[in-house]
């Protein structure tokens, strides 16, 4: 069994996030710092990636003052606590090949020092010394002590309710480590 290591290239990888509330949604980006993907006999077998929570950007709010205020709130203890937890991480514990380039990925997602298992479908394309991978991770924020305006913890929120789940559209590009 041949194992090959691939280093995730942060500048060619990205995360697009979407958070929804009763009255609409917000979206933006988060940078990937580093990571590694492992192939055994040409199939994804493991890996990880590190998320720079201090890089969260909001794309849908164009007013600079409101954008800065909202970003500050996302960096606060109500959400990502970026001063105490500047990184989040996903570690693959299982990669089940489905068909073609499809996989069911299971792994441990750590945000704010709290780890939970999560599974999602991904497409993984191997081309020589390069891997591209894409998948959508749906995260229940309340599992990571992000309870602000959650209907699970507060009542009578009306149209200020924020849904518990947010989406991370992850795109990774990795190159073979020689």
UniProtKB/TrEMBL annotation:
It comes from the Bacteria. Gene3D superfamilies: Lipid/polyisoprenoid-binding, YceI-like (2.40.128.110). InterPro entries: Lipid/polyisoprenoid-bd_YceI (IPR007372), TTHA0802/YceI-like_sf (IPR036761). Residues 5-175 form the Lipid/polyisoprenoid-binding YceI-like domain. Pfam families: YceI. The lineage of its organism: Bacteria, Pseudomonadati, Bacteroidota, Cytophagia, Cytophagales. This is YceI family protein.
